[in-house]
């Protein structure tokens, strides 16, 4: 179902994770290509972090299998961990150490020769703009700097694949864009990047392809633009209708796909002028038509907003 002509570096087949009575991930299939940025997009609790943890062998699968560079996570977890760098959502940096010391201690886990470690750390400090902060204690860094250091640390063993769980959660807009720039740069240098996010604009900005995750299932899969076109169409007109009676009247006079959330109606269509004139005729009020987004896709598929 989810196949591509490009070379897949990660494949999930019937991936399932159950915690007692909770079915966290329900028989999902996915295929992630080498050197692409792939995103699992969904609200908190959707199952996307659980999928990631199974990919990097943090937790076992209940059933199904995942193959990373041709290796099964069931049979070769140690080898797979050597191929993957992980930057988790939690700030798990060592606060008693400086920026440089955090990277140095982490490099010891991979048995890198000391000279290789020193060279790699210097390259990462330069790449992430952390050279001037190398002797700074972690506690004195801003949120954005800490996140950069977490990503730098995940790259210490020069992995083929970088996994980032909610890479910009809790960051201010400036720091968020710095992390975006970093991801774009890493991808251009040949890394395969997986990220989870609940930020719709982040997925549209960064990801070549996404899996829209909800309730432990993958609802849609493909490039952001393709998914929007397939599920919604090009444009949306958002109407505010204050009473239930008016809502019923407006719905009867509008043809095409409509989604209701409270007192708002979302009307979907491709031709912006036809969409606008239809909605204005139904409401008697001037209306604004905007391009459709992944937020609209999620709303149509689940009946709720992504936020």
Report what the structure shows:
The chain is of the alpha/beta class. The protein folds into two domains: 8-223, 3-Layer(aba) Sandwich (Rossmann fold), CATH 3.40.50.300; 233-291, 2-Layer Sandwich (Alpha-Beta Plaits). It is built from eleven helices and 14 strands. The chain has a six-stranded mixed sheet, with helices on both faces. It is elongated and about 75 Å long. Residues 10-240 form the ABC transporter domain. This is ABC-type multidrug transport system, ATPase component. It holds the Pfam family ABC_tran. Keywords: ATP-binding, Nucleotide-binding, Transport.
CATH fold annotation of the largest domain: Rossmann fold
Mean pLDDT: 91
**What is the count of DSSP helices, taking H or I runs of 4+ residues?**
11
Q: What's the level 1 CATH class of the largest domain?
A: Alpha Beta
Distance between the termini: 28 Å
Helix fraction, binned, reads: 25-40%
Biggest sheet descriptor: 6 strands, mixed
Number of domains: 2
CATH superfamily of the largest domain: P-loop containing nucleotide triphosphate hydrolases
Overall SS class = alpha/beta
Question: What is the CA-based Rg, rounded?
Answer: 22 Å
Order of helices and strands: EEEHEEHEHHHEHEHEEHEHEEHEH
Oligomer: single chain
Low-confidence stretches: 1-5
Tell me the strand order in the biggest sheet: 6-7-8-3-9-10
CATH architecture type of the largest domain: 3-Layer(aba) Sandwich
What fraction strand? 25-35%
- Count of distinct strands: 14
* Overall geometry: elongated
GO molecular function: ATP binding; ATP hydrolysis activity
Domain ABC transporter: 10-240
Protein name: ABC-type multidrug transport system, ATPase component
Keywords: ATP-binding, Nucleotide-binding, Transport
């Amino acid at each position: 179902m989810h196949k591509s002509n490009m070379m897949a570096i990660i494949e999930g087949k019937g991936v399932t994770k159950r915690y007692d009575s909770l079915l966290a991930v329900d028989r999902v299939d996915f295929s992630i290509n080498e050197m692409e940025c792939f995103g699992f997009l969904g609200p908190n609790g959707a199952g996307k972090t659980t999928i990631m943890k199974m990919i990097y062998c943090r937790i076992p699968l209940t059933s199904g299998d995942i193959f990373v560079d041709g290796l099964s996570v069931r049979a070769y977890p140690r080898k797979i961990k050597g191929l993957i760098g992980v930057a988790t959502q939690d700030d798990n940096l060592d606060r008693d150490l400086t920026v440089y010391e955090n990277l140095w201690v982490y490099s010891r886990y991979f048995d890198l020769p000391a000279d290789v470690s020193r060279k790699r750390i210097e390259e990462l400090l330069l790449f992430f703009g952390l050279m001037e902060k190398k002797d700074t204690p972690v506690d004195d860094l801003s949120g954005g700097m800490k996140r950069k250091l977490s990503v730098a640390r995940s790259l210490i063993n020069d992995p083929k694949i970088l996994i980032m769980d909610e890479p910009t959660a809790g960051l201010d807009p400036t720091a968020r864009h710095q992390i975006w720039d970093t991801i774009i740069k890493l991808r251009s240098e040949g890394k395969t990047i997986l990220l989870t996010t609940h930020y719709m604009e982040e997925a549209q900005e960064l990801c070549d392809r996404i899996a829209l995750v909800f309730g432990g299932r993958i609802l849609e899969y493909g490039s952001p633009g393709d998914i929007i076109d397939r599920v919604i169409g090009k444009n949306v007109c958002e109407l505010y209708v204050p009473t239930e009676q008016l809502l019923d009247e407006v719905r009867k006079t509008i043809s095409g796909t409509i989604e209701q959330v409270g007192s708002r109606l979302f009307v979907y269509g491709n031709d912006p002028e036809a969409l606008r004139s239809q909605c204005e005729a139904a409401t008697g009020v001037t209306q604004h038509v905007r391009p459709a987004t992944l937020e609209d896709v999620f709303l149509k598929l689940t009946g709720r907003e992504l936020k």
